[in-house]
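Module 6 notes. Inverse folding takes a fixed backbone as the condition and produces residue identities as the prediction. Think of it as a translation problem where the source language is geometry and the target language is the twenty amino acids. Below is one complete input and output pair. Work through it position by position during the lab.
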């Protein structure tokens, strides 16, 4: 039953790379010691962690000492914002401004609002209808009073890629620190933290075929030299920035997945983008009135967000029981508010509720039958839309 399902929610999470899974298994079985222990078994476990650190670093063109392992991008985002704020308060600087975008993930927006409640000045820079930051508006918000700009690499709902290098260059002019939530970028779009001139970048393993519950924060120049302070206490792990015994098997799996994802990117990205375009074209042809959201020329490959005006996305999803599709970000599940991302790019509440996101995966892209598989997915979706529209026409006002 499970094999017949078609999983189209790779922005929420990805199936694990088999070699990352195998390495996790091997690590859990053989390297059980605490990586902080000084005996031989401990040193061997520490070697596993350090090898993974080097692989993650290499995947984003960083140095190993610039990678701090965390439990995922949620923690990394919190650590970057709260930790940079704490360091600023402790060092007595006068910068108290935070700048970010209304389309950020809740794990950026919530700590930013928390800091606002503590006395920081929070400014949200508007984005265009394609979800990209308006650079002139960003420039207006940056000055010598701003501590940190937090800008995502790619959006988890509409796939829009932000002009990171341009935004970071604007921030630099005013001595503003730059944090990037790159959870959706690793393995999907080139991410070179040094070339982009970032101070901090959040990574998540389960978005790039690694395990859940592990991620990293890139900290430029390493923890000791960077303007960041810990937000949890009780151990000297991760150079004092993130206390707690490292999850050796998950970290090993992350290292393997990150290296492999970065290596296959040049070949995989165009293939996934072509299939996504094919899927999108066929859906738009079969569902008149449907609209694609996001920056069509600046999106992660494989992903699309489509609005079907007048239709309830939940009803559509309920009519496609063999497809795993999300209506908004998974982090919103259960919350009746429409997606804040879709609202920020100008969609009405109704259109936000009429939107689904789809993301194709690597095995599908690799298969010689990928085109026909994608066509079948599109036909299933447009078939369900026609059924719903017929129902709606026969009983207008019915809750679909
Ligand atoms: N940022 C973005 C853009 C994301 O898509 C996600 C995952 N939904 C996160 C942060 C949180 O990542 P994690 O699941 O690793 O905590």
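Target side of the pair, the amino acids:
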């Amino acid at each position: 039953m499970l094999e017949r399902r078609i999983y189209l929610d790779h922005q929420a999470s990805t199936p694990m790379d088999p070699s990352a899974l195998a390495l996790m298994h091997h690590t859990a079985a053989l390297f059980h010691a605490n990586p902080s222990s000084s005996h031989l078994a401990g040193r061997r476990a520490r070697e596993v962690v350090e090898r993974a650190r080097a692989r993650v670093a290499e995947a984003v063109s960083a140095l190993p000492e610039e990678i701090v392992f965390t439990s995922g991008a949620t923690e990394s985002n919190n650590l970057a914002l709260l930790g940079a704020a704490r360091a600023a308060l402790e060092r007595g600087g006068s910068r108290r401004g935070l700048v970010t975008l209304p389309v950020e993930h809740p794990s950026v927006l919530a700590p930013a609002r928390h800091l606002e409640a503590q006395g920081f000045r929070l400014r949200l820079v508007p984005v265009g209808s394609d979800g990209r930051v308006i650079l002139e508006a960003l420039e207006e918000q940056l000055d010598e009073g701003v501590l940190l700009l937090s800008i995502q690499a790619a959006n988890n709902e509409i796939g829009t890629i932000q002009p990171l290098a341009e935004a970071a260059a604007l921030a630099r002019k005013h001595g503003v620190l730059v944090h990037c939530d790159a959870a959706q970028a690793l393995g999907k779009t080139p991410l070179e933290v040094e070339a982009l001139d970032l101070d901090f970048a959040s990574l998540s393993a389960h978005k790039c075929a690694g395990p859940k519950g592990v991620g990293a924060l890139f900290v430029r120049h390493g923890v000791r030299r960077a303007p960041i302070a810990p937000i949890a206490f009780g151990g000297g792990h991760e150079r004092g920035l993130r206390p707690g015994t490292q999850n050796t098997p998950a970290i090993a799996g992350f290292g393997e997945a990150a290296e492999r994802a970065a290596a296959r990117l040049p070949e995989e990205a165009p293939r996934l983008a072509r299939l996504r375009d094919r899927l999108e074209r066929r859906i738009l042809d079969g569902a008149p009135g449907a609209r694609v959201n996001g920056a069509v020329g600046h999106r992660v490959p494989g992903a699309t967000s489509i609005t079907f005006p007048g239709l309830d996305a939940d009803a559509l999803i309920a009519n496609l029981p063999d497809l795993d599709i999300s209506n908004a970000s998974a982090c919103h599940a259960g919350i009746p508010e429409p997606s804040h991302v879709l609202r920020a790019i100008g969609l009405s509440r109704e259109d936000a509720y009429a939107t689904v996101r789809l993301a194709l995966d690597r095995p599908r892209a690799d298969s010689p039958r990928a085109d026909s598989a994608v066509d079948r997915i599109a036909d299933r979706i447009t078939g369900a839309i026609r059924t719903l529209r017929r129902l709606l026409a026969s009983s207008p006002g019915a809750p679909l």
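Reference fact for the lab report: The chain is about 40% helix and 15% strand.
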